[in-house]
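Worked example 2:
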Amino acid sequence: MFTAIYRPKRIEEFIGNSNVIQPFIKWLLEWNSEDKKKCLLVSGLCGIGKTLLVDLMLKKHDYNIIELALDDEHDKTYINNTIKPLIKSKKTFDGQENVLVVSDVDSGSDYGFIGTLTEIIKETNIPVICICNNRYEQSIKPILNYCFDIKMTKPSYQDVYRLVYKIVTTEKIKIKESEIKEMYEQSNGDIRFVLNTLQFGSRKGKKNIQSTNIFESTGKMLSMDESIDKKYETYWLANDLITLMVQENYINNTLSSNDQAKKMENISYSAGALSDTDLLESYVNMTNWEIEPYVAFSCINAASKCNKKAMIKFPEFLGRTSTINKNKKSKKNNDGFDQLIRSTEAKKTNAKSEANSKKPRGRPKKTK
């Protein structure tokens, strides 16, 4: 996998965002528990290299990393029992300085997690580094006052071109500069996209990796007519979504059989492979790209007992999530509107009471 072969091993090999390196180092080496900015917030587009930058930087300066990822328990009890004791110890038994790294802080749906994380930042004796895609997400607002910002932008075309040039000369890939520019625009700063495109798109000539419809890709994954190599290549055309698509459609496309027990066995086999895929994906991030091929083959394995026969449907899970988020936003707006009405009515009542209190009491005296 190019994502493993050409993954930077040292901070000096990191692609783009050279302007954030020195502020990062300065904050890390001058960190003090008395400072207000005890947390470093690293933000930027998905796939831009946020987690990789943090990992390379901490390894360069020999820190012991304590990780709290999105798939870990984010409830208050877990953090109080597991994380809080760790942030009190500045060093390990071997003398390494500790640092807490919290991934995807803007992706959690539990607002209690952010409140507890804020308490952690206030009380910590070790540096805390939070990573997010959207620095302006309202849910993370409570921690912003305690954060030093590192805002990453997508690497320049020149930075990406140097990486691509190194790969195409080493791997003997034929590609035009116009195709490199097109790939750069499509990637939107996602270096993994560039590497996967070079490996699975450009090696057989010009090919727009985004031109394949996700429904067509899923159909190929579920088809018995496609080879494993072709399915492997298809997987990388939409690897962020293809597993969800297979999960949504594998039951309706399971191999037909007059024996119901055999059909249930096929469904069970696919379900088990999808479970393995989900488990492997939980370990995949910018620091262990080498697991990604196993995720791909596990997803292909899940589709091996299928053959496309039904209409491919989009995952209902994503639709429900969108609806839930929309309802939350609507409820928040309605609550705000109701509060505004109550506030206005209260002001009117107070004003009326104040006006009544200023009126003279008792009967006015008659004038002669």
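The longest helix spans residues 316-357. Residues 212-319 form a domain with the Zinc Finger, Delta Prime; domain 3 fold (CATH 1.20.272.10).
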